[in-house]
Amino acid sequence: MRTSKPEPLFELPPASSSGGEGRPLTMIDLFSGAGGLSEGFRQQGFQVVLGSDVDPDACATYKLNFPEATTVCGDVRDPAIKRQILDASSGVDVVAGGPPCQAFSQVRNHSRIIDDPRNSLYREFVDLVNQIRPKAFVMENVPGMAQMGVVEQVVEDLELGGLYRVEPPAPVDAVDFGVPQTRKRIVFLGIRADLDVSPPTLAGSGASAALSLVRRGKGYYAVEQRGHGSSDYAEMLNDPKDLTIVSVEQAISDLRGLEAGRRADEVESKELRRPQSAYQRLMRSGAAKVTRNVSVPRINQDTVTRLSNIPPGGNHRDLAEEFLARYISGQKWGPSTDSGRLVRAHFYAYRRLHPSMWAWTLNTKADCAYHYNAHRALSVREFARIQSFPDRFVFTSDPTRGNIPGRIDGGPTHSRYRQVGNAVPPLLAAAIAREVAEVVWKACRGTSAT
Predict the structure, then answer these.
(1) pLDDT tens digits, 314-330
(2) Is residue 28 one of the residues assigned to a domain?
(3) φ, ψ dihedrals at 110, nearest 5°
(4) What is the DSSP letter of 412?
(5) 19 pLDDT higher than 50
(6) Interatomic CA distance for residues 363 and 349, integer angstroms
(7) Which of 232, 254, 292, 424 is most buried when burial is the number of CB atoms within 10 A of its CB?
(8) Do β-strands 136-141 and 184-192 pair in parallel, antiparallel, or remain unpaired?
(9) What's residue 21's pLDDT?
């Protein structure tokens, strides 16, 4: 099955995606997961050449959605896998990726993080950039790195002895780039020094600092404005025609007819409600006749009871004492507790989204967020909408059953939630791609002029 040809999510000057050479800029995506970075770059006119990941289920999703690219599935530390990547990446313009960095918070005695064995995947990313020598690279990671005191080390590693120009980055929030979800990342942008241009900077709307969801009292939550000009942001958030800031309701209200326990994973697109916002129209643009990933997990009666007593935007703190017992209906399910009451591990399990606000950061589990007015978890498609994946992007898994190299236990359904939850939001990736394209185009134009 091939996905529909994508349409740009942003409009760019035609020359900015050509690199000054009459061809599309090219990119590869390392540690790609399902392909959030690749989707954003493709939306900006880049030709996606390759995606690589160790997870076979994520690779299956990547291969389905990027049939034009080479999918390399395996551990980049394997010389044979690394050789496949290098063979397919000759002359590529941009290398992008988010290597896991397990020991960034463990730096001691001035040891270099790139030398720590636990950061071997980060080291491989740096080495591949060094061998491929792209015009630019993008490395995204968790924002906590900025508090770990290692940003200067990372910048020095990525500069490769002066081969690249890299500026210390500031954390960015996906909300500020039109994603209906707060998701903070840190993005290192590098430009090859011989191109004689400075790395681009990312600047979003600033909505994340101007608005917040606050608890006004038990059972009531509202959007609060903070600081001068915040009323303008509130107006944009409330406007379904405005793509600058997007609420949860504007993202998924056309999918609200899905019911808990729905097993069918696809629906005729014409059966969905008509788009209720500009964002929904954007996400459904170019979609197939069938919308996929719409199955919904079953739900326990105790959870339904609790959700019926939690307001939109609320959580366990809004429950009356009678609903804090571990089991309400008497039916035993899940692990019991010695106290017979909910414990700290359950406190993040009962949270309802607020329709008028963007979502908190989705994780890899279906129950990390419940619908704002229906007593159910979200479908993978709703997860994807909140992450800004268009409906034409289908999440799947490797058909091979059982444990295979690189697979994480949990089954295909959990894998799809995990793939979405781990991804870079495509709209954030598109904003990154736009800035990189402009700078590389400028550099190539200057080079051709001389």
Answers:
(1) 998 899 999 989 899 88
(2) yes
(3) 60, 20
(4) H
(5) no
(6) 12
(7) 424
(8) antiparallel
(9) 53
Active site residues: 101
Number of domains in the chain: 1
Q: Is residue 34 part of a domain?
A: yes
Residue 120 lies in a domain: yes
Read off the pLDDT of residues 374-407 as tens digits, 9 standing for 90 and up: 999 999 999 999 999 999 999 999 999 999 999 9
Residue 217's pLDDT is what? 82
CA distance 372 to 393: 24
- The pLDDT of residue 148 is 66
- Distance CA(27)–CA(89), nearest Å, equals 8
Nearest-angstrom CA–CA distance, 279 and 175: 13
Q: Exposure of 135 by Cβ count < 10 A (0-12 exposed, 13-18 middle, 19+ buried)?
A: buried
CATH number of the domain at 21, please.
3.40.50.150
3-state SS record for 330-346: CCCCCCCCCCCECCHHH
Which segments of 285-339 does DSSP mark as H helices, in order?
301-307
Cross-strand pairs, 221: 215
Closest-CA residue to 279 (of 311, 249, 258)? 249
Q: Point out which residues pair with 191 in neighbouring strands.
A: 136, 165
Annotate 3-42 with b (16+ C-beta within 10 A) or e (fewer): beebeebeebeeebbbbbeeebbbbbbbbbbbbbbbbbbb
Which of 37-41, 281-285, 321-325 has the lowest average pLDDT? Answer: 321-325
Q: Collapsing DSSP states into helix, strand and coil, what is residue 61?
A: helix
Identify the residue whose tokens are 């409009």. Answer: 11
Q: Domain range for residue 40?
A: 14-200+425-449
Domain membership of residue 251 (yes or no) is: no
Residue carrying the six token digits 């056309």:
254
